[in-house]
Amino acid sequence: MSRTHLNILVQLAKIDGVVVQDEIDLIKQIGEANGMTSEEISQSFNDPHLIENLDTLSDDEKYEYIYNIVQLMKIDGRLYKEEIKFCAKITSKLGYGEEVLMELMLKIYSDQDLTTDKQTLKSTIQKYLKH
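Structure (tokenized):
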């Protein structure tokens, strides 16, 4: 996992002006699950503006990015216009069509426990990836 991935999540968490503990916990969980150290995770919270070129990511990495941003949007139970705009910008930079964000939001938001089968969901949304 790159620091860029975490930085995108931190920027999204901060976009509404309030970073709740659930958002912090999810970001830390994602970072730790991907082998990042506590120091690397802290750096992302301190300076989340470093975003590298997203064009070089594999399709699997792009999917992880987009899945995580929608998952983070859901965590505080509120959906802000600024969050949607930010996520739309990131999904576009990842090479997905606009429809993917709505598709993911519908699938993930309808799943109360965030237990959506990631592989099935990935198959569904990969059709929106432009090559």
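The mean pLDDT is 82. Helices lie at 3-14, 21-33, 38-46, 59-75, 81-93, 99-109, 118-125.
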